Amino acid sequence: xGSLAVFPSSAEAEGLSRLGVVCSQEPRRSEHQQCxxxxxxxxxxxxxxxxxxxxxxxxxxxxxxxxxxxxxxAGATVYITGRNKETLQQAAHEVESRGGKCISVVCDSSEDxxxxxxxxxxxxxxxxxxxxxxxxxxxxxxxxxxxxTKPFWECPVSMWDNLNNAGLRGHYQCSVYAARMMVEARxxxxxxxxxIGGLRYLFNVPYGIGKAACDRMxxxxxxxxxxxxxxxxSLWPGAVLTxxxxxxxxxxxxxxxxxxMLTSIIKFGESPELxxxxxxxxxxxxxxxxxxxxxxxxxxxxxxxxxxDVNGRPITNYTSLRFVLSTVPSLAWxxxxxxxxxxxxxxxxxxxxxxx
Length: 356
Known about the structure:
With 356 residues, this protein is of the alpha/beta class. It has two domains: 10-26 and 37-314, NAD(P)-binding Rossmann-like Domain (Rossmann fold, 3-Layer(aba) Sandwich), CATH 3.40.50; 319-356, no CATH class. The chain contains 15 helices and seven strands. The chain has helices spanning 10-13, 39-43, 62-73, 85-96, 112-125, 141-146, 159-185, 205-225, 243-251, 256-268, 274-283, 298-305, 321-326, 332-335, 346-352; strands spanning 53-56, 77-82, 101-106, 132-135, 188-193, 230-236, 295-297. It has a seven-stranded parallel sheet with strand order 3-2-1-4-5-6-7, with helices on both faces. Helix 3 (62-73) runs parallel beside helix 4 (85-96). This is Dehydrogenase/reductase SDR family member 1. Pfam families: adh_short. InterPro entries: NAD(P)-bd_dom_sf, SDR_fam.
């Protein structure tokens, strides 16, 4: 059905500029370049996550950094990981400026020893406390771009590892170490950043398998963690306006189709911090266990918790019938006649991906 919305994760969103993924919505107000300091920070008050210890993997840029910024603004101590020491330290400085404490740890999420050392460090420095883990690291963008039009049998088998080593196996390993600490404390939240690629074909075969596995990992881990009061969810962001998208647009080095897509994301895309706002709200929800094991979408959480993006713009509802019609050229004219509150039920999305 045309170019129905995709939900890329942090590093994946940064590859959109070369993938031709289109996002559309009604016009919004112009975006602010900087998010203002939190009112709590200005008033010298503690945040809702004061005392919390968090780990966000793949947080040098994009959604990962946006999540870390919001966790810090809520008062948490945040460990961020990445492979590049310089960009990681720059991100840590920005995160800490929001009011919390940030510790940068060079960690390759495809390396077992790096992951083990990360959680040993957290356990040692925080006396065994870990409240939130966000599995966000991803290293497959270049592979997605270079193989975008090729069927799986024409691609090297190594593509599987390029996409799913850090972005699936690494997530599982991080979850194991985090769960050990959380189960001991009988509290905690684990989030894996996934996408609609786990529901329908997107980009390539290993990508979809990896995202479907992330969603299933959240569901199955939640079953075993429930009796220990530890929650696990899969979070689907929408199209995200990352640093790479901005840089690509500013460079002027784009094809006409790329420019059209970039313009749509710049006008309508989520900020990288929206996912962080959603996670802060989830972490402070006394009924969070009701959602453990489920796939949650940013636009649903924004409506549930009354969240607005950092620039004050409304968030695209990708299940809105108006939005879906707007992505189908032959039906786009109908979109303006459909009220925005009419949405495609979740069971329809599930049925569309049924394997039976």
